[in-house]
Structures are given as structure tokens and as C-alpha cells.
Amino acid sequence: MRRRRGEFDTFLFADYSGAASPSAQRRAIALWTLDRGGRPRKVRGPFTRETLREAMLAALVDATRAGRRVLFGVDHQWSWPRDLWRAAGLADRPWREALRLLVKGGGGRPPLGPAHAFPAAFNAWGGEAIFHCRVRGLARRYRVPTRSSWSGDPVRLAERAMPGTKPATRLGGTGAVAGQTLVGLVELHRLLQEATRKGVPVLAWPMDALADDGTSHVGCEIYPSFCRPPRVRQTDDADARWACRWAWRADLAVTLDLRRAPAPVRQAASLEGWILGARP
């Protein structure tokens, strides 16, 4: 499955959902794929978060057996800002270990979970109003304040390089992604674990490595608004489809290489992650 750096046979991207109900997830989640030289096509669904993980893993298994490389991505944050990892007591761990411990919980820290359970428990454990929600009704439902009193930085360096993205601690409201990140990180952890058990080589970029290794499948965080042309109406299908088209046309050998980025970018990316296409 050796290729030139940045060369992939298949692109596989999903538009995600943090919705609580499976029926809402099935309406919102979209998965599209593009084989090099072909056209984007929708993967038959519908999907919940769990079945999306299963479908993406199956595609990686099949590609491995066929000697094909896959670049895949999902549009939730693939990591937290360093200050939030620090609040969780995990800022000094490698990203995969930090993610595993976050999902598992321990030492009184609640296991990572959905917006109706984890944020309030995490705030109580940390003794600070870190997670918050500007929508009053949702704030009452989630048992979190409408404003945060936390002095930490809720924004990753990658967000500062990709205008329009949202902080990791703000739940609910237009464009907020914190809720879907909470559940998305759990599924991402499971996907990586299952891939390892099945002998499927997956590099979670750039936390595992700052550059494509030319051998593994590469998973990454996408921001569909960046990939979608300005005049195209935003829909779940359009977001995943245009992410495929954008990646197919991009110079991925350069895009997936942060080794020559400024030192603060390299340091942040190893724990906070990076967004495909963000300028370092």
C-alpha cells in the first residue's frame, strides 16, 4: 500500500451530528466517497453515529485488503485546546493516550459523553464553569451556565487559522460544535481502537505524525465551509460531497505536512490537532 506522500486512492468524508436521538442522527449524518479518477458518490445509509463508525471501519478494512489508501475525515473537532486538556489533567499525555483516558474517565473525572451528561459533571469535577450554553433553555436542560467563568483559552490554534470555527466549550446555538465533538471523540477513539485490533494502519493527522507517511490510511478533521464553494447551499450532503472534491484536487503532500510549520503550530498540532486546509 506504499504510495507517494499525499497520494490516496479513495476519499471518504462524513458530515456529522451531535443529536441525541438516533432518528435525528439518521436525518443529519451523510457519508460520501470519491475514488481517484471517478466522481463523488453517496454511501448508502442512513447512519447513526455508531453505524457510521462501522461503515468507515469497513471501508478501511476493504481498502487495506485491496492495497488501497484512504484519506477520511469527519467534521467535528478531533481534539481539545491545550488549556482544556490541562483542565482535564491530561495535557502532558500523547494525544491517543489522552483521548483514551478522557473517554474512560477516572480519578473522579467523568467519562466523556453527550451534552446532557458530561459537561455538567465535568464542570462539577473541575470546580469551574468551563462548559456553557448561550441558549437558556438548553443551558437549563444541560445544567450548565449561560456564560463561562473559566480563565482558560477555549480556542485551538487551528481555529485561529480557520476563521468561522467555534470554541470547544460552548454548547448549543448556531454553528456550535462542542456537543458533537463530545460524542464524536468517543466514536473516533473506538474507530482507532478497532482499526488497531484489525491490523488496519491508520494515522490520525497530525496528532500521530505531522506529515503523511505514504503508507497508512490518514484520518483528519475537516471544516466543510472551507471546502464548499461560496455559492453552494449548505446541506449535509453538499458538505460531505464537497469535502471529497476539495481533497481530490488539493496538493495533499503539502497540505498534510506540518514539519516546516512554525514551532508553535507544530507544538499545538501534536495535541490540539489541525484542520485539513488551514494555513499554518
What is the average per-residue confidence, as pLDDT, rounded to a whole number?
Answer: 94
Q: Into which percent range does the helicity of residues fall? A: 40-55%
Shape: globular
Strand content: 5-15%
Are there runs of 5+ residues with pLDDT below 50, and where? none
| Oligomer description | single chain
Number of helices: 12
Using only C-alpha atoms, the radius of gyration works out to 18 Å
What string, H for helix and E for strand, traces the elements in order? EHEEHEHHHEHHEHEEHHHH
Question: Roughly how many Å apart are the termini?
Answer: 29 Å
- What structural class do you assign from the helix and strand content? alpha/beta
Largest sheet: 6 strands, mixed
**Total strands:** 8
Per-chain topology:
Layout: E1 10-15, H1 22-28, E2 30-35, E3 41-42, H2 49-66, E4 70-74, H3 82-87, H4 95-104, H5 118-126, E5 132-133, H6 136-142, H7 157-160, E6 170-171, H8 178-197, E7 202-204, E8 217-221, H9 224-227, H10 236-249, H11 252-255, H12 263-272
Parallel strand pairs: 1-4, 4-8, 5-6, 7-8
Antiparallel strand pairs: 1-2, 2-3
Helix pairs in contact: 2-8
Give your account of this protein's structure.
- The protein is an alpha/beta fold and 280 residues long.
- The chain has 12 helices and 8 strands.
- It has helices at residues 22-28, 49-66, 82-87, 95-104, 118-126, 136-142, 157-160, 178-197, 224-227, 236-249, 252-255, 263-272, and strands spanning 10-15, 30-35, 41-42, 70-74, 132-133, 170-171, 202-204, 217-221.
- It has a 6-stranded mixed β-sheet, with helices on both faces. Strands 5-6 form a two-stranded parallel sheet.
- Helix 2 packs parallel to helix 8.
- It is globular and about 50 Å long.
- The mean pLDDT is 94.
